[in-house]
Specification:
5-stranded antiparallel sheet, single chain, mainly beta, about 220 residues, globular
């Protein structure tokens, strides 16, 4: 497998992260705003952008998503999409001095005119950090996987899932106990019965390694 830089203008001297390819081929990702566009008191925020691929040219100039997605004063990141591409999930994060004070899961629905105003997902947010949302399926039900430091886990950040009960509504989260360790499990990605995630608690090369688990129908 060849790893190639996506090039400019997608990449710039600031940090880019959490890329997700929409089913229609548009690339969505998070990027810190340019230093020249810093907000008051020198603070600048991560926002979500989209970029279309142009044949023989590569990825085009990114477009910043509107304020109904990129709320002022928050970092917007960790974007993902439902299988049909009609729902976008992401995090709104409050952070000061490099410390994550709040992270909640939001979603937006695709309409004929673009993305709808983001709403906070119910059932998966609370007085804890909830991040890295990604949709999947278990037992024939649509579920939302995410990482959280809520009480009752094995330690640090654990992986959870919650059954979808309505638009933007989910049941109480269930701990994916067999995947979690005493340390941190983050960035779940689900595809056709396989769960990919990062962990610094399972034996690996060092730091956060990528792991794969195949669903056995019993969790």
């Amino acid at each position: 497998m060849e790893v190639k830089n996506a090039g400019t203008p997608v990449n710039n001297p600031e940090s880019q992260g959490s890329p997700a390819l929409h089913p229609d081929g548009v690339l969505y990702f998070s990027s810190l705003s340019d230093k020249s566009a810093k907000k008051e008191e020198g603070i600048h925020f991560a926002k979500l952008y989209s970029s279309e691929f142009e044949k023989d040219k590569g990825w085009g100039k990114p477009s910043e998503l509107p304020e109904i997605i990129n709320r002022e004063g928050y970092h917007s990141t960790n974007v993902s999409f439902s299988k049909d591409g009609n729902t976008m999930f992401f995090n709104r994060i409050l952070s000061e001095g490099g410390h994550m004070d709040e992270s909640k899961i939001y979603l937006s629905t695709r309409t004929a005119s673009g993305w709808s105003p983001a709403i906070e997902a119910t059932g998966v947010n609370g007085e804890f950090i909830a991040r890295h949302p990604v949709e999947g399926e278990l037992f024939g039900n649509t579920v939302l996987f995410f990482s959280s430091d809520m009480q009752g886990g094995k330690g640090g950040f654990d992986l959870y899932y919650a059954n979808k009960t309505g638009e933007g509504q989910y049941s109480d989260p269930i701990n994916l106990a067999d995947l979690n360790s005493a340390k941190d499990e983050i960035t779940p990605y689900y595809h056709e019965g396989k769960m990919y995630f990062s962990s610094d608690g399972w034996p690996g090369i060092g730091g956060f390694d990528v792991f794969l688990s195949t669903w056995n129908g019993a969790q």
